[in-house]
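User: Please run a holo structure prediction.
Assistant: Happy to. Please share the sequence and the ligand.
User: Here you go; the ligand is protoporphyrin IX containing FE.
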Amino acid sequence: MQPAQTDLAPPKDDPFTLEQLKQFDGTDPTKPIYVAIKGTVFDVTRKADTYGKGKSYNLFAGKDASRALGMSSLKPEDAVSDYSTLSEGDLKTLNDWFDFFSKRYNIVGKVTDLPPPGSASDSATSAL
Ligand code: HEM
């Protein structure tokens, strides 16, 4: 584990739609890489070796990956925002990841169009 960053910038509140977030999935090396958790967008560019194209955690990049983080899943179909069906334990895991990212990465904004919990447009099953 690396120590928490001590030089984080004040959180920004820029709006991102899920569609806009997709640009920041590491495919374009000239753009930053973002991961959103519970609608909060984190800039993970300094760990491009982890989240960049072809890297182990690229599945979380350019999206709100709350569900997969809570479930400790690396399945791309789980990397969606809806965490409404997670167990208590998985919700705790999700919140622990939120804290982990908060301590290490700058917050650049919020996702403005998260689908309502349990809706078909962003549930794990619709991505299959
Ligand atoms: C065989 C299983 C796994 C191994 C060996 C593994 C290994 C690692 C290692 C070595 C790190 C770096 C820790 C550090 O910063 O020093 C890490 C970070 C991480 N792992 Fe895993 N992992 C595994 C499974 C998973 C799974 C199932 C998830 C799904 C949620 C996951 C999500 C993450 C995340 C989000 C990070 C933080 C990366 C960062 O921002 O630095 N890992 N893992």
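The chain is about 25% helix and 15% strand.
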